[in-house]
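Study this pair:
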Amino acid sequence: MQPLFSSCRNAAVLLAIASFASMPPVPARAAIPLTACTYTLTLTTSNATPTFGQNITLTVALTFPSSCPAPYLPAFSIFDGSSALVSGARANEPGSKFVYSTTSLSVGKHTLVAKYVSTISGTSGTSNTVLVQVAAARAPAISSLIPSSASSGGSAFELTVKGSGFDSGSTVEWNGGAVTTSYASATELRAQISASDIATAGVASVTVVNPSAEGGASAA
């Protein structure tokens, strides 16, 4: 019976070899080395020539090929020269993006650059340079008043102030006292003058005052 046992064993071996040979080929896979991935950091500004005290928005975007792994929890920093405007901040917009707004830039030229680092992923980078030139704000100026006169002892009225350099923080002052003011445009404000303001005959002084960071007060 030995030959029969040997024959069965050989048949089993042949069957196993045949089964293995009939399996579909396994596709080759190649890992992408991290060093082969290009991570690009870009810094942009909403306004490269703001006036002093004006808000600007800085956007830092980290981009990379879809085949590359995203850096794990990258920390973003924005520098003004050697001084950090913000340091170690996490992305606050989808797609590895960090957005930062500021009104703190002083009058003059600013050289801004962004950096990121991901210690766990082992990646880091520096952005392009962005130049921001902050100009001194102009004082507001009045060109005309509508109406230009009112009757003493009369009723309250709305005074339209025409000019330039007005903003949403501008306030009209009547004889040195602030009155309720609404902003219409950079060239027009509307002020509410009460009956008590014109109770006595005389000449009223009208001025427009901006926050000190935005130009100060106009001439009367």
About this structure: The radius of gyration is 36 Å. The chain is about 10% helix and 40% strand. The CA atoms of residues 61 and 111 lie 18 Å apart.
